[in-house]
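Run log // design_07
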């Protein structure tokens, strides 16, 4: 009886979007940010069915001098970021749009944003590309330092031919990995779905950051915790044209205020358990 319970617990743990072991990826270098002198903080707390992710959002790596005259008038500020996200998130019946502002937290506590600027144009490439510092980030008008593009320079080691590490969590609870899959194969958006993710070999959904549009996320595959008040702009990467701009005709969707309630055995969790049992049987344990 106890053994069976232990197996069930083990299965739930194995099938988590972010495993206990992977929560160790969340941490900062302890380097004071050069403009503010503030040290970046990030922590993950086990809350039972959820992981609580908290950070002050201050980068733990080199930055430019912000404000940068003639480029960006904003300064970096410390925030009280707090996101309680399901350990076993469910793939939603239909994906959700990405609001402006934070859509995920990188493992160093820095916020991740969607691919667009305030005018719904591609913030990363083309005529409307914004200027980022040597570590791929910049602050917005609220003082939130953030990444729009693949944050490869300072956040994680992008090693050719090797599996990429977990680099963050999206605000639906699903993990965000670097651009290489578990066999070290380089991915582009063509390998991923419209939300910029796919199922791993455990049957668990995960996002990947890539160098091509939409760079980090294209939509939420699961149910996002509300990250901004309803009424803001909210888009799917599939609404963008070939330059990555949102075309004028797209209707702005208001964000429903959602809470994470996905603690039941989801189809993806079920799939993960089947895959795991299948592997166990193959090993004849
Ligand atoms: C990685 O390689 C293994 C063994 O060849 C394969 O079963 C698995 O599907 C591959 N994973 C991906 C994501 O391609
Ligand atoms: C994207 O927006 C920029 C800036 O408005 C514009 O120069 C470019 O032509 C747009 N691309 C498309 C395909 O609409």
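design_07 sequence
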């Amino acid at each position: 009886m106890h053994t069976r319970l232990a197996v069930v617990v083990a299965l739930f743990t194995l099938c988590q979007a972010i495993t206990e072991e992977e929560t160790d990826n969340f941490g900062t270098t302890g380097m004071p940010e050069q403009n503010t002198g503030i040290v970046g903080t990030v922590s993950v707390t086990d809350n039972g069915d959820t992981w609580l992710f908290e950070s002050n959002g201050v980068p733990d790596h080199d930055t430019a001098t912000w404000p940068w005259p003639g480029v960006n008038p904003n300064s970096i500020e410390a925030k009280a970021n707090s996101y309680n996200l399901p350990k076993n998130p469910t793939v939603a019946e239909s994906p959700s749009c990405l609001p402006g502002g934070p859509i995920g937290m990188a493992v160093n506590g820095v916020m991740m944003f969607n691919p667009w600027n305030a005018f719904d144009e591609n913030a990363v490439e083309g005529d409307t590309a914004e200027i980022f510092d040597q570590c791929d980030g910049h602050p917005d008008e609220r003082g939130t330092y953030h990444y729009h593009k693949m944050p490869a320079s300072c956040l994680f080691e992008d090693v050719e031919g090797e599996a990429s590490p977990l680099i963050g969590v999206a605000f639906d609870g699903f993990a965000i990995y670097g651009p290489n899959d578990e066999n070290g194969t380089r991915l582009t958006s063509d390998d991923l779905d419209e939300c910029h993710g796919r199922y791993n070999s455990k049957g668990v959904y995960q996002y990947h950051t890539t160098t091509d549009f939409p760079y980090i996320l294209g939509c939420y595959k699961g149910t996002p915790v509300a990250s901004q008040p309803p009424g803001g702009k909210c888009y799917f990467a599939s609404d963008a044209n070939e330059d990555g701009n949102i075309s004028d005709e797209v209707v702005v969707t208001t964000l429903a205020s959602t809470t994470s309630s996905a603690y039941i055995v989801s189809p993806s969790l079920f799939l993960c358990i089947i895959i795991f049992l299948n592997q166990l049987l193959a090993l004849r344990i």
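The two ends are 17 Å apart (CA to CA).
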